[in-house]
Design brief:
The protein has 127 residues and is mainly α. Helix content is 55%, strand content 9%. Strand 1 and strand 2 form a beta hairpin. The mean pLDDT is 90.
Length: 127
């Protein structure tokens, strides 16, 4: 398996684990609230992040299943020095003080390539 494919799989797995952990914790909290409350209390349902629907490249489940094809095209683009990351999606996150801050979300393959470059720079610049 090539390095690019490994990184794409690793990034997709990280996002999937985060998403499934959020679901599991949400379900556990629901059970805890049912045990402690006399009235019926339901937490709002957890949904998929909206950017997963914007483009298939944001969905880690789909990216994981197509990692071989994606890594092949990314590897070819990197080898020919024509790789360009796709446009990120920006969304707002609420701050504690009441404001919001913009956060950019990159596609899974772009996050993997970014991590590869970062780790390569770290290795090259070790003392």
């Amino acid at each position: 398996m090539r390095r690019v494919e490994q990184e794409i799989l690793r990034e997709a797995k990280r996002l999937i684990v985060n998403h499934e952990t959020r679901h599991r914790l949400h379900a556990e909290e629901q059970v805890r609230l049912r045990k402690r409350s006399t009235s019926v209390y339901r937490l709002p349902p957890i949904t998929r992040p909206p950017w997963w629907s914007a483009d298939p490249g944001f969905n880690p489940y789909r990216t994981r299943s197509r990692s071989k094809q994606i890594s092949h095209s990314v590897q070819a683009a990197l080898a020919e020095l024509r790789y360009r990351p796709r446009h990120p999606i920006e969304h707002s996150v609420a701050r504690e003080d009441g404001g919001t801050r913009p956060v950019c979300v990159y596609q899974v393959a772009d996050g993997a390539v970014s991590k590869m470059v970062y780790e390569s720079l770290l290795r090259k610049n070790l003392p």
